[in-house]
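We give the entry.
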Amino acid sequence: MTFSDWSLLIIQPFLQQLISFIANLVLAIVVFIIGYLISVGIGKLITEILKSIRFNKLFEKEGWRKALQRANVEVNPSEFIGAIFKWVFVIVSLLIAVDALGLSSFAGFLTQVLDYVPNVIVAVLVFV
């Protein structure tokens, strides 16, 4: 076995794995960017729907605004809920992108974050 045969046996699998990883990385980036853009659109859509049904007025009627003012929190309820939807979908798109890369530990962490979001929302509602 000559040096060129030996080096070809070592370098060829490395280059194949490198090309495969780069292709998966490009795919993951494209998936995340598309997911992010969709997430922004969903967040804006939810915000506009809530504004059109006058959710902010309902929010003020129920006394939530006063409770938040006592806690020194100024928030537009429609925009806040739209932002929550946006970031949940951003995490979902990041999870899909990370899964495409095969990073199972990070995907597990993101899944735990998504599983924890409802608990945070309930805690905020109880706190207010």
The two ends are 75 Å apart (CA to CA). The helical segments are 3-52, 55-61, 64-70, 77-101, 104-127. The chain has one domain: 25-127.
